[in-house]
């Protein structure tokens, strides 16, 4: 079993790049990066100083339901290439730790799976969770703000 880090789907990013609205039905805000703390959820790289970015509400779940967390994310304002799914830690994961949490086939949190995890241990923690029959996928979220970073699946 191999874990892979997956970015926001290109179809969702394209909707926003083409002027579409976010999870709250609002147009994304445009800001300019000062070079720190703006991880793009499509290419999974940090947005460089001077580059324009979009700030928007994102819901990484297929439908509204009580566990469908929605929160702020950043996206390059200009289209970027989607992160190629792989087992390597994405460039945006620069904090010392993150929340790693499992979700079931019904897209609900699987209780007891969430834990603040040192960054270098994320792949092995995700593999442990994904080995469970009740866990369909894993989210990596900020340990300080709970912001969605990326999704982990198995291949």
TrEMBL record:
<dbReference type="Pfam" id="PF06718">
    <property type="entry name" value="DUF1203"/>
</dbReference>
<protein>
    <recommendedName>
        <fullName>DUF1203 domain-containing protein</fullName>
    </recommendedName>
</protein>
<dbReference type="InterPro" id="IPR009593">
    <property type="entry name" value="DUF1203"/>
</dbReference>
């Amino acid at each position: 079993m191999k874990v892979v880090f997956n970015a926001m789907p290109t179809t969702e990013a394209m909707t926003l790049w083409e002027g579409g609205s976010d999870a709250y039905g609002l147009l994304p805000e445009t800001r300019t990066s000062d070079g720190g703390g703006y991880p793009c959820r499509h290419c999974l790289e940090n947005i460089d100083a001077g580059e324009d970015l979009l700030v928007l509400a994102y819901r990484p779940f297929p439908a509204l339901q009580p566990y469908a967390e929605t929160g702020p994310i950043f996206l390059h304002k200009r289209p970027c290439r989607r992160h190629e799914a792989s087992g390597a830690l994405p460039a945006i994961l620069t904090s010392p730790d993150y929340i790693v949490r499992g979700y079931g086939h019904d897209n609900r949190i699987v209780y007891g799976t969430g834990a603040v995890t040192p960054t270098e241990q994320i792949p092995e923690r995700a593999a442990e969770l994904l080995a469970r029959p009740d866990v369909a996928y894993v989210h990596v979220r900020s340990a300080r703000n709970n912001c969605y970073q990326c999704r982990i699946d198995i291949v």
